[in-house]
Design goal:
mainly alpha, MetI-like fold
């Protein structure tokens, strides 16, 4: 009887594992196949989606050369705009998020509970719901502060920074909560200020979550299309995602070879950042998830 039960459990476990592997394989195919198709199309000289194969019959770099040398596309400027906006946004997000998380974790004040509740409520609503208000606000601000108005990188950076603060602040606070308060108290007794405690002691200790916030913020801001498309106009100010989209809309006979080449180049920074730092993302999210 015991052997039959054991055999039944092994068979059930084998069937379960087989089903999981098959499902995982199907999901991987659906995730990887579109990217492989994009890469193949970018090296295809036919400049059409219909003539593209996963293994191109004739590999050519003409799409990439035309993309980078074309004076009408201005792709290099779009690419640099995306890197500039994302880099500045990430630096500001990291600094402001770290300071806000430290304040919420270490200081006690009357409205702290309401601030925490407000941050959690803001996470419930998607940011796209506020786009009309954001557009109107930047339009008015641009009259008095030109570099934070519509069609400016400063205005786009301000929206990215403010929109990324909520959930990131909560993650940083949860991480700082795991650090013993006795460290701060000992430093205070030695004459250190709160500013010195934060930058010299706490900030280096929360490096994993800071790296996580920086990576997620970069991938979110660099890959954004909706907000950038609404706030930015003109060939020289737009980001690479908006530029690729506008190129597909300006021509009746879209040159898909060039579009896919631009997509591949645009994806490289995000892929590079992710693969080089995925270990830090996992460590940063899991270490602060449990209060010690």
């Amino acid at each position: 009887m015991g052997n039959k039960v054991s055999l039944y459990k092994r068979n059930r476990e084998l069937i379960s594992n087989t089903f999981k592997y098959i499902l995982a394989f199907i999901l991987c195919v659906f995730a990887v196949l579109p990217f492989l198709w994009i890469v193949a199309t970018s090296f295809n000289g036919a400049k059409s989606l219909l003539g593209a194969n996963l293994i191109p019959k004739s590999v050519t770099l003409s799409n990439y050369i035309e993309l980078l040398t074309s004076k009408t596309l201005n792709y290099s400027m779009w690419f640099l705009n995306s890197l500039k906006v994302s880099s500045i946004s990430v630096v500001l997000i990291v600094i402001l998020t770290a300071m806000a998380g430290y304040v919420l974790s270490r200081f006690r004040f009357r409205s702290k509970k309401y601030i925490m509740v407000g941050i959690m409520i803001l996470n419930v609503f998607p940011g796209i719901l506020a786009m009309i208000a954001i557009f109107a606000m930047l339009q008015e601000l641009g009259v008095y502060i030109p570099f934070i108005g519509l069609n400016t990188h400063g205005g786009l950076i301000a929206i990215y920074v403010s929109g990324s603060m909520s959930i990131n602040v909560l993650m940083v606070k949860a991480y700082i909560d795991t650090i013993p308060l006795s460290i701060d108290e000992s430093a205070l007794l030695d004459g250190a200020s709160y500013w010195q405690i934060f930058w010299i002691m706490i900030f280096p200790m929360i490096r994993p979550i800071i790296i996580t916030v920086a990576i997620l913020s970069f991938m979110g801001t660099y890959g954004d299309f909706i907000i950038a498309n609404i706030l930015l106009k003109g060939n020289e100010n737009i980001t690479v995602m908006v530029g690729i989209f506008q190129f597909t809309q300006q021509r009746f006979d879209t040159d898909w070879g060039i579009v896919m080449a631009g997509t591949v180049i645009a994806a490289l920074p995000a892929l590079l950042v992710f693969f080089l730092s995925q270990k830090h993302i996992v460590n940063g999210l899991t270490t602060g998830s449990v209060k010690q």
